[in-house]
Specification:
mainly beta, 423 residues, 31% strand, Rossmann fold
Length: 423
Amino acid sequence: MRDARQIGEVNGAMPQLDRASELHIEASLRDSAGGTINRNRWQTWAFPQSRYELRGKGVKTNLAFIQGAYPGVRNLDRATPPGDAALFVTDAFTEEVVQYVESGGKVLLLSKGDLPAVRDPHCNLFRTVPYNTGSTGNMGTLIADHPALGRFPHSGWCDLQFLYLISGIWPLDLEAFRPAKIDPIVRCIGHHKTMRSQAYLFEATMGRGALVATTFDIARTFAARPETQYLVDELLRYCLSAEFKPRNELPAKFFLDRIQAKRARGTARSWDANSGLTGGYEPEQAIDADLNTFWASNTPNCKTPKDLGVELPQPRTITGVRITYYNSHYVPGMDGQDLQCWDGDRWRSLDDKISISGEGGTVWLHRFAPVTTARVRIYITKMGPTPYPNYERPAVREFEILAESSGRSSSPKQRLDHRPGEL
């Protein structure tokens, strides 16, 4: 094989653009007679650096990166309702925000989990090959002819200008809104075996107000990605325009019921310093009634001790905990786990009886005499046999508290995709 060597250099200047554009770069290699030896063509996108002027427009936000990028936007803490804002930009759809929209407010929601999402395997990838595996994944995207993206360059689908906005995030589950019907601005096309209705961006009215909602990875990519900055600019511009008149309607009750149910479940968390947060596997993934999501902690390392539990909004009398582990390789040793409750001053071990079931012994039912507490956790110091010595730590699909009154909890409602192998 001959050594590669440089045969020339091409220099060029980017055109000065006053609007976002799709650009094409083409290069040809010709011989001395003018014949084409080879040719290549690349597609790219360019976005202007200008910002939409928001001074005096009544925009409020609880997001520091929005307030920092747009002078004139008033920053609110999460406990302060939007009040008389002309537009509220937020990542949390709280009870106060729902009531603000219902009474006539406008919201741009950069959702971080308050909207129903499709968390099936492969659905958080920019591109999958669903015909090669299982029954989940993304077959493509479809962008509607819509004024919200009227100046954002696209060809009716999400090409690489959306790569950083989509990679690693879950699409919205539009089927959860039924019987309400949503025609999304950016649709995610589900696997051909299920054709589940999914989206990355949609709008709807609610009461006398309206919202635009997205799961695009805006917060993480905003600082470095010009396409994200321009997209936010366009969404702000649209939400403040006379064109912001969604055709579909969603009932406020749907969101208020979700908020109430989430509050009743409590807050999943870890207390041990060795159980740091790992993106995509946060504690709340273990109380979302979805067996296709899970908690795991790789921070600061992938070794025990690790802990996971729930903090309830107020003390509750409970009689058991059901823990569903990821698979048999991420189950603790019987002598390396301790179910504990908080007595107001310290953690104390519960005198529990354990029954084990499920494929590979992954479902552990802990039963104990009724105890009233606001915190309960599993504290793991030793793992069972595993072929992955670099990952000697647990992974939990669901952590369910069993109440005294019924002895039951909300059951995970989605199909379990059992995935053996290393996390």
